[in-house]
Design brief:
Layout lengths: L10 H6 L5 E6 L2 E6 L3 H20 L7 E5 L2 E5 L3 E3 L3 E5 L11 E2 L5 E5 L5 H14 L4 E6 L4 E8 L2 E9 L3 E2 L9 E2 L9
Length: 191
């Protein structure tokens, strides 16, 4: 190669170069980007994080022993398979310390994707199989517009639905079944 020839930036370098306001992921060797989420999406993610932090991270009214993180950059394969779930949780014995940089390389014990019209297909058809492939034990899909929570457990390498809940139902769902979450607390009042 001649000194004046430029090499094409790696997928991860392209990901790092994305403009402010875009979230990027490398899924199955392809870059996916999406703009910042809508109001109902942000509200649902914040409220669910709030519901889980006290009892599961802090041990207030629940068992503790977890880390709950919004939008962590998961590196299932360093700089190659890079997923950013809306929320993820780790048992503290599996992730005793946070990484110094932004790369989480320990597979989470739980992920949650907040569905939106622009991301639902990717979340279901691309990301859920990746989460199963890398052994994430639990996954939730939360639809803040249809007001539905779907919960899945990984069994034998495949997802098994362990619950589908709608509306205002109070729910206790694995792996966070030690507490009850009121679903109507997750739905944003909208115009």
């Amino acid at each position: 190669m001649h000194a004046h020839q430029k090499t094409r930036p790696s997928l991860y370098e392209q990901l790092e170069a994305l403009p402010e306001g875009l979230t990027g992921e490398i899924l199955n060797g392809q870059i996916y980007t999406q703009p910042r989420p809508s109001g109902p999406h942000v509200f649902a993610a914040s409220e669910l994080g709030y519901e889980l932090l006290g009892p599961f991270e802090r041990g207030r009214g629940g068992p503790g022993g977890w880390w709950i993180v919004q939008e962590p950059e998961l590196h299932f394969l360093r700089n190659t398979e890079v997923d950013v779930p809306d929320l993820a949780g780790w048992r503290k014995e599996r992730l005793p310390r946070f990484p110094r940089d932004h790369r989480f390389t320990v597979v989470p014990d739980w992920v949650c994707e907040i569905l939106s019209p622009s991301t639902e297909s990717k979340d279901r058809k691309v990301k859920m199989p990746i989460y199963a492939q890398y052994g994430v034990p639990f996954a939730w899909l939360l639809d803040p517009v249809a007001h539905i929570l779907e919960a899945y457990a990984l069994e034998g390498g495949a997802w098994r639905e362990i619950g589908r809940f709608a509306g205002a139902a109070p729910v206790s769902v694995a792996p966070y079944d030690a507490v009850t979450i009121r679903l109507d607390d997750l739905w944003a009042p909208t115009e």
